[in-house]
Amino acid sequence: MKKTMKNLKSFLRYVFLITVSFFSVFPLYWMAISATNKNVDVIRGTLMPGTYLVENFKTLIDQQNLGGALVNSFRNSIVLTVISLLICSLAGYGFEIYHSKAKDRFMGVLLLAMMIPFAAIMIPLFTMFANMKLLNTTIGFILPTIATPFLIMLFRQSARSFPRDIIEAARIDGLNELQIFFRMFIPTMKSTYAAAMTITFMAAWNNFLWPRIIMLSNDAVTMPMLVSNIIQGYVTDNGMLMLAVLITTIPTVIIFFILQKNFAEGITGAVK
Amino acid sequence: MRKNKLAMSGRHDLTGWAFLSVASLMIVWMNFYPMIKAFHLAMQTGTGARMRYAGLINFQRILVDPTFKETLGTTFLYLIIQVPIMLIFALILASMLNSPTLKCKGLFRTAIFLPCATSLVSYAVIFRQLFALDGYINVVLVRLGMLEAGYQWLSYTWSARLVIIIALLWRWTGYNMVFYLAGLQNIENSIYEAARIDGANALQQLTKITIPLLKPIILLTAIMSTNGTLQLFDESFNLTNGGPANSTMTMSHYIYRTSFQLSSDLGYSTAMAFVIFVLVAVLALIQMKVGDKR
To answer: CB B273 to CB A90 under 8 A?
Structure first.
């Protein structure tokens, strides 16, 4: 009796998890399937891969600046990720390795920036960037999020586990402080950098509100903006639209799968 | 000797400041400085070059702006309904996935976490099309005989709000679950075994062991979700475009409209943005206070 109860419970648990997993994956499956189908078939509710992928692709490049948007999105996200990782890891290392009370207090002040909602500063930022002639530029895209308290904390946390003996030994060997950072710290902290890279790249790639504000020229659109522009029209070609969504999603999903483990460690690592 | 050591540490202290200077300056320049500018801007009225000091007029205008009140109400509706459901659901999923007897753990975890890999615009557009008049949801409901013809989900206030809440749950539950899973890994399984031997059921284990031990992480996810919900923009903009008749519009979306889309009333918009700032700060403080007490 007790055993059947236990089996039933275990069975129900699997049913529940399978249901949740199904609903989690289904919208993405539907999106990918729709990208390969004609609009009429999407509306008819097909769930089978179609043969209309190439046609959808042609419609998409005919109507939208797909190439430009892809180049812009990759350039903006990569430049932001590289610079952001560099300066935030330098800062996290500086806060932890050369630890002092004054620096702790200063970190506390910087953390307050996490409480500032973007909506509260987007208008002054817009006027600042318009005055600096940075609208429609990559520099304009990257500056507001180039340094975040979150990334600094993440690197400060990981620097805590960096063995001080290595630093001492390197100093005796005659390396200067910057060399120690580049030759010792960065290679040992690969997994932290991988996590930070995932988080920063995804946030940059997916950012919508800020480029929506400063990217006013059609040459400067990013992928999320392109997707959003398609639905502003009256008639929507579902196949073409879902192909644009698919193309926007592929880079982040690839990064997500490669770095899944690091990502989970990364976002939770900063919590502990 | 001692003096030498002090000189060394003084030099290293400076090196430290140099290391953290670039990122810190950027945070000050891109966050604190605009915040001060925002305060200045909120006290002004007019557009373009014709801005003039207006005192608290903008804040008085907020109090009598029906659209602002409506967007404030809608944003809080999302907050009050969606965040608790999501966090409880994430907690339940995490404790299920943490069970040592469960098979295919990795598969379930990946599937439930997968929505987090899609951008906010992408998932908003996917849900917009799924719930469109000729969308897949209507196709299925008609096929099952639950509806005679397609329902205009996004054309009625409450069904449109419901779709936004469903979409938010879909996108963020897995994200919060991962935080809880990481926290659960630090709890020894033997505690649960001991509780089971003492006859504690699943619900008791959840409320007596899991929730108290995960309290700091639950607090963190609650603050993050509150913060995120108060700033919702992409979903409101892309899923419903605020409609029907502004009834699903969030505060950020309204501010975007008044400053960049329908008009360029920067002073008034900034004053409204200030309200969001105060709300985020106050709610975070309350949550931290409540979290401390328990």
So the answer is: no
Backbone angles phi, psi at B182, to 5 degrees: -60, -40
Q: Would residue B104 be called left, alpha or beta, if left means φ above 0 and alpha means ψ between -120 and 50 degrees?
A: left
**Percent of chain A with pLDDT strictly greater than 90:** 71
Please say whether the beta carbons of B121 and A208 come within 8 A: yes
> Under a CB-based contact definition with an 8 Å cutoff, are residues B167 and B124 in contact?
yes
What are B170-198's pLDDT values in tens digits?
999 999 998 899 888 888 888 888 888 88
Q: Are residue B125 and residue B260 in the same domain, yes or no?
A: yes
Between chains, do B260 and A213 touch, taking CB under 8 Å as contact?
Answer: yes
- Quick: pLDDT tens for B109-134: 999 999 988 989 999 999 999 999 98
Instruction: Collect all residues of chain A within an 8 Å Cβ-Cβ radius of residue B136.
Output: 30, 45
pLDDT band at A91 (very low <50, low <70, confident <90, very high): very high
With a CB-CB cutoff of 8 Å, which residues 68-87 of chain B face chain A?
Answer: none
Task: Note the pLDDT tens digit of each residue in B9-52.
Answer: 678 889 999 999 999 999 999 999 999 999 998 998 877 667 77
Q: Inter-chain contact B136–A30, Cβ cutoff 8 Å? A: yes
Of all residues in chain B, what percent are helix, strand and coil, respectively (each to 5)? 75, 0, 20
| CATH architecture of the domain formed by A57-271 | Orthogonal Bundle (1.10)
Which residues lie below 8 Å from residue A141, measured CB to CB, with a gap of 6+?
Answer: A76, A80, A204, A207, A210, A211, A214, A215, A222
Does one domain contain both B122 and B226? yes
User: ipTM of this predicted complex?
Assistant: 0.90
Q: Per the structure block, which two tokens stand in for A242?
A: 């879902």
CATH of the domain at B266: 1.10.3720.10
